[in-house]
Amino acid sequence: MDQSATSKKDHLYLSDYDRELLAGERGPGPQMAMRIIVRMAEILGVERLIDIEAAHIDSSLYMGAATLEFAEKLVDLGAKVSVPSTLNVSGVDEYGWMHWSVPPDWAENAKRQMRAYQEMGCIPTWTCAPYQTEFKPKFGQQIAWGESNAIVFANSIIGARTERYPDLLDICAAITARVPAAGLHLQENRAGQVLLRLKEVPERVQRHESFYPVLGYLMGKVSGEKNPVVVGMEVEPEWDQLKALGAAAASSGTVGLFHLVGITPEAPTLEDALLGNEPEQEIDVTMDNLREAWRELSTADGRELDLVVLGCPHFSLAEFERLVLLIDGKEKHKDVEFLVNSNRAMRALADEAGYLRSLEVFGGVVTVDTCPLATPMLSPDIDVVMTNSAKFSYYAPGMLNERVVFGALEDCVLSAVEGRVVRDESLWRT
Amino acid sequence: MAYVIQSRPLVAGCAEGEVLLSDKPLSFWGGYDSKTGEIIDRRHPLSGEFAAGKILALPFSRGSSTTTAVLLESMRGGTAPAAILTIGVDTFYALASIVAEELFDETIPILSLSPADFERLKNGDMAKISQSGEITISTQAEVQPVAR
User: Where are the beta strands (DSSP E) in A120-222?
Assistant: First the structure.
């Protein structure tokens, strides 16, 4: 390891454009953004910066005074994004927050932060699933995305190239259109490293929606910072299943890219996925491992239930459609709340298709722009939450001080109707 | 017993405090309460520990992109660790300290250790960090001398 951070500095080549920004010739906003990009490049010890074509900005999430101050400082300094930049969830449902337990001062500050990012020219998509919008990237494109589930989806399922961008750096990348030539931007870092072999995992399990979040949770736990590769998939998963897989892996681990051999674009064969290398580690995944992971995703036992949360990551139109088929003709129990998270554009499409009407009759509600992990919308009386999302299951106990039950979409609907936790556990029992 | 190791400062600075160590990575989003400095990831071995003012040693950050924002908020609120030690280069923690310098002219040291040096650390050790990245570690034995 190089012990000297300063010696790296001499090796970083900056283009004329980079130097202009750094010297403040394009204003103090771009200068501050470039100063931060260059410091990160020095820390990484890279030789150059590269262009990006698009960005997804997770910095829009209001976390408190400092994130707001950062956004408004960039606006005051005249910063504007110079590539198409979609916005992740914000800290508040801009027009719907008053129906929930959101403190008004939180709402006011979060809205200020929303305005700041729009003033910088970002696109108000307000979603953690930008790959479900018209702005989804293309195979091979160099992009700078924030939001862990979006990053892993862009890299793995679409084959676009983004490093794992933390909040605050994504917007600097969008302003300068430059990023350190490092990590998953570079071909050599996209090789699979940890080989997961599905061992006697029956096709009926692989067809079940819960298989994906459970496998993802397991994958994140065993892969750490490495790129996992999975062999032994016998079915062609749907986008929403891959979304659940990636979101889980990026919650329990640091996964920014995975390959499913025969399925994802950079992995037609195992050799392709490994870029000709030997795997650093090989792990068998059995039904026992999956069962254990499935059990770990729930922290509540018993039948008690207060709330069902769906749409983590944000619900797609296809998920609305599946949900509507399940709730048709039913009504939720009066003591259980039923919440679907999505974004404005998707809600409009669901409305057009008549799905919102069905959800309303059932007694469910949609929240947009945000989600309960990003905004203090839930009443402290809510204790037990059921969800079909491994990501939500992972974060809710610590962030919301809630107990969680993980189940399939069908179980979530049935439980909401019955007013108590009901799960079909046959798949996970021996 | 005391010994000295040389780290690579990603963000340089001086700090002193008790080592709070885990070999499991931590996402600050959902894992760190920026109001109190408590580690709140209920699946993490350090759950329930308070890291404010301590030298937090973790192999790397995990999960969410928002880790940086939470660390920045905790720096502003005075509930951040006194320094963070990682193995290798963790940009998520380093960025928070860099942005804090831009915003309110404050940093916490973020230091990169070799795996071997990281492995020698123990919970409860006292660490003193210098501007150049030199870390003096006093093990518990010296803090509480054993009677002969």
Answer: 143-145, 178-180, 194-198
